Amino acid sequence: MAVVMPVRDEAAHLEAAVEAVLSQDYPGPLELVVAVAPSTDGTEEVAARLAARDWRVRVVPNFAGVTPAGLNAAIAASTAPVVVRVDGHAELSPGYVRRAVELLDETGADNVGGVQRAIGTTPFEDAVAAAMTSRFGVGDAKFHYGGEPGPTDTVYLGVFRRSALERVGGFDESLVRNQDYELNWRIRETGGTIWFDPSLWVTYRPRGSLRALARQYREYGWWKAEVLRRHPGSVRWRQLVPPAALVANVAGLLLGLTRWRPALVAPATYAAGVAVAAAAAGRGSPGRTARLLAVFPTMHHAWAAGFLARALRMARCDPAAGDEPPRGINRGAGRRLLRCRSRSHPGSPRPGA
What we know:
The chain is α/β, with parallel strands linked by helices. It has helices at about 15-20, 45-55, 65-75, 95-105, 125-130, 135-140, 160-170, 180-190, 210-230, 235-260, 265-280, 285-315, 330-335, and strands spanning about 1-5, 30-35, 55-60, 80-85, 90, 110-120, 150, 155-160, 195-205. The longest helix is centred in the last third of the chain and has 31 residues, at about 285-315.
């Protein structure tokens, strides 16, 4: 069993994430490969200390600094037929690995996964966690809040058959975000199955400030538009709702405040929806409800702004020249990796390439 963990600036959470892996009750051999990107908080030192403490932990460099490159490097450094993906700010639940392997055998799936259980440790993180488990906040993606076991389009993190990863060429290193969804799409396009089961769950630490949350969701939206450019058939209705809502809200405000009052119905309806959803997700806590009044619009509108910015950039970019993300969208890695061209995407690198 190979567990792969790409990390960058995760010194505060890395030890807990590693301990959750090493304490799994999996009956067979288990190795953990940590791919460390250049960090500013001492993550490299923490990873080296953990590797020195337990022979099952190995550290490899991730010079590119982006998640998919780290995943491919860790996969290439391992040999087990099953690959478990974990993040440095996530903790596997007890029995996760054992149950995931059982599900691979029972279902014949190429990738199995479960619920992203968002848990905050501050009042703001708690509000973000509540939003991430709300259908109003994140749509119908089951891995956010649970549901019936069965085939699905994507799962959180995932436990893969190595043969499936090799069949599709591993993670696409040109995708700074949304690489999981895109990989699962390629697996399904080659006849594989992605299986969701709520008995599998992994804790997730939400962003700790409104600014960090806005940047995270703006990046999500930007890279989702790029994935849809490459794979138009992968679009889901939930991915089109935020851009439509942002356009309707902005247009409604501009028209309603300047020319046509009835246009205010659109933003007023959205505001009412936010208020109702915040009250429901707040679960009787006035403080959580108040914070959700800011969290919901930030998630929706930042995601939509990133999506529309990328869509507009694709519409006007010069086919003969490279294009890059705007300020704030992974300024380093995005400049190196993303190119907007008229030709088709050249394909994904294989693990270790």
